[in-house]
User: Fold this.
Amino acid sequence: MKKRNIVIQFFLLLMVIVVIAAWTSIRTHESAGEYVDDSVITTKVKSLLAADDFLKSFQISAKTYQGTIQLSGYVNSHKAVNKADEIVKSVKGVTGINNNLIVKQAKEKYHEIEQEG
Assistant:
C-alpha cells in the first residue's frame, strides 16, 4: 500500500512538471526578428499617415504587435477612419488592423445637443 502511494505521488509530481513545462513554452513576447519587423511596419505606417494630406493634421498613434497594427487617436470624420484603414492595408507585412480611431464631435454640435437636453 505504501509503495502504491509513492508511485501515485510520483506520477502526480510528473504530471505537474509536464504542465508547468507546457505553460512556460507558450510564447508571450516577440522574438528579436519579429520586433524588428513590427518596428519597420510601424515606421512605414506612421510615415504614410503623416505624408497623407487628409490625415496629417490628426494625431494618430500606431503600434504593431506580431503584424497586427493598432491605430488610436481622434479624427473628425468616418472618412478619415476609412482612409487610415486603406493606408494601413497597403503596407506589406500587416496581418491585421485594430482601428480604434475615434471620430470627435464638433463643438457646435455638442453645444446644440447639450442645450436641447
